[in-house]
Amino acid sequence: MSKYPLASLAIALLLTGCASNPSPSTDPYPGSGGLFLGTPSQADVQSGRSVFTPGKIDFAKVGVTSKQDVVKTLGPPAWWQTKKDGTSTMGYDFVEVSGFMGMRKVVRASFTFNTNLVLAAIDKPQ
């Protein structure tokens, strides 16, 4: 039996609390950066990476998908922001091609994550 049972319990609780919060090394985009209201590059459009289709972001499930999963699937975000409370948001700019003369418009999607880097909300293009 420990000579200081309360101290041992306090240390165990602190270590457990640290394990539930992601470390900066596991967050693929900590802090804030990027270009809000950017435009996809011509290379991204031509490669199809930034062309929006209705099923493009259907892989993302609230409460299941991680921030790393979103980056792995969609690539680097156009912008990202981390709030003081530890929640974060990443935004993606896509090009949507309309039927009328192949007109293109920029549409945006944003993904909000809780402090454990798990998807909490999605704002999809309409």
TrEMBL record:
UniProt entry keywords in alphabetical sequence: Signal
Domain of life from the UniProt record: Bacteria
PROSITE patterns: PROKAR_LIPOPROTEIN (PS51257)
Signal peptide start-end: 1-19
Name the record gives this protein: Lipoprotein
